[in-house]
């Protein structure tokens, strides 16, 4: 085989995946830097939380899609922990509930947030594309697309520290979603990394695993692009939430 076609070792494949994160993860995006350095207005933080809810709410749906395609009982046991983390094991528990507490604190009514009526079109398109990717592509590609979790503990640390330092309208309680995520993300990333390396048995499959992670990074990046255009450059598309749209907020609900 030529050098280009040679199967990567496990160490080489992991290094390539980590390189994707170093070059493409959304901690490099200008909106991320603006948010965590205190540069965002209150309304920009509102818009970020409102739009990010759609991503959070669709993660367990994406994970349920992947779960139905895993053939090993042990793999399914490991994967369904992700659904439990987001949906919770009981009413009032889980990551989605903690995210709603953040949007509560930012003045939105729950009905409005859950309706996703005010999210940006690009947010919906990006998240729906991710769910469809995990439904339509191979299982190993679907699992590999979740490997952004390799990089999330660091961005979460930046996010919490930066927001607490710069915004008096957030607190550790309202940012509780993030306090739970680092150990969960580390556990999930370890499983997904081992699965991706172990099930990508040809160079073509390894390349698809790398492309899957690049795709997921693009999904996250495009959401921040949309927020920047709409709420920093003030090009808000028709139908999306607008700052001062009090009918959408908790006080008017």
Question: Can you describe this structure?
Answer:
68% of the residues lie in helices and 0% in strands. It has helices spanning 10-24, 30-36, 42-67, 73-87, 95-105, 110-115, 121-136, 139-144, 152-166, 176-199, 203-232. It has 253 residues and is mainly α. It has a single domain, classed as Heme Oxygenase, Chain A (Up-down Bundle). The chain is globular and about 55 Å long.
Write the layout of secondary structure elements.
Elements: H1 10-24, H2 30-36, H3 42-67, H4 73-87, H5 95-105, H6 110-115, H7 121-136, H8 139-144, H9 152-166, H10 176-199, H11 203-232
Helix pairs in contact: 1-11, 3-4, 3-5, 3-7, 3-11, 5-10, 7-11, 9-10
Function: Ring cyclization and eight-electron oxidation of 3a-(2-amino-2-carboxyethyl)-4,5-dioxo-4,5,6,7,8,9-hexahydroquinoline-7,9-dicarboxylic-acid to PQQ.
GO molecular function, one term: pyrroloquinoline-quinone synthase activity
GO biological process, one term: pyrroloquinoline quinone biosynthetic process
What is the fold named in CATH at topology level?
Heme Oxygenase, Chain A
The tally of helices reads: 11
- What would the average pLDDT be, to the nearest integer? 93
Count of extended strands: 0
- DSSP strand content: under 5%
What order do the SSEs take from the amino end to the carboxyl end, as H and E? Answer: HHHHHHHHHHH
Q: What sort of overall outline do the alpha carbons produce when their principal axes are compared?
A: globular
Query: In which range does the helix fraction lie?
Result: 55-70%
> What distance lies between the first and last C-alpha atoms, to the nearest angstrom?
65 Å
The name of the CATH architecture is: Up-down Bundle
Oligomeric state of the chains in view: single chain
The largest pleated sheet is described as: none
Q: CATH homologous superfamily name?
A: Heme oxygenase-like
What is the CA-based Rg, rounded?
19 Å
What is the CATH domain class? Mainly Alpha
Overall tally of domains: 1
Helix/strand class: mainly alpha
Instruction: Give start-end ranges of low-pLDDT stretches.
Output: none
């Amino acid at each position: 085989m030529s050098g280009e076609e040679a199967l990567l070792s496990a160490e080489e494949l992991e290094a390539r995946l980590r390189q994707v994160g170093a070059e493409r993860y959304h901690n490099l995006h200008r909106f991320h830097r603006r948010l965590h350095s205190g540069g965002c207005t209150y309304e920009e933080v509102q818009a970020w939380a409102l739009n990010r809810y759609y991503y959070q709410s669709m993660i367990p749906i994406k994970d349920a899609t992947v779960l139905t395609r895993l053939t090993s009982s042990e793999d399914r046991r490991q994967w369904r922990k992700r659904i439990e983390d987001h949906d919770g094991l009981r009413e009032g528990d889980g990551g989605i509930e903690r995210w709603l507490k953040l949007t509560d604190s930012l003045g939105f009514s729950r009905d409005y947030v859950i309706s996703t009526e005010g999210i940006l079109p690009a947010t919906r398109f990006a998240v729906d594309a991710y769910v469809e990717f995990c439904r339509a592509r191979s299982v190993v590609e679907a699992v590999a697309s979740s490997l952004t979790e390799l990089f999330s503990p660091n961005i979460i640390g930046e996010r919490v520290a930066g927001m607490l330092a710069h915004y008096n309208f957030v607190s550790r309680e309202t940012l509780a979603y993030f306090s739970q995520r680092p150990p969960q993300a580390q556990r999930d990333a370890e499983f997904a990394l081992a699965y991706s390396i172990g099930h990508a048995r040809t160079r073509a499959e390894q390349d698809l695993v790398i492309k899957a992670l690049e795709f997921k990074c693009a999904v996250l990046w495009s959401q921040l692009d949309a927020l920047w255009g709409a709420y920093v450059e003030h090009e808000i598309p028709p139908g999306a939430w607008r700052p001062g749209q009090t009918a959408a907020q908790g006080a008017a609900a």
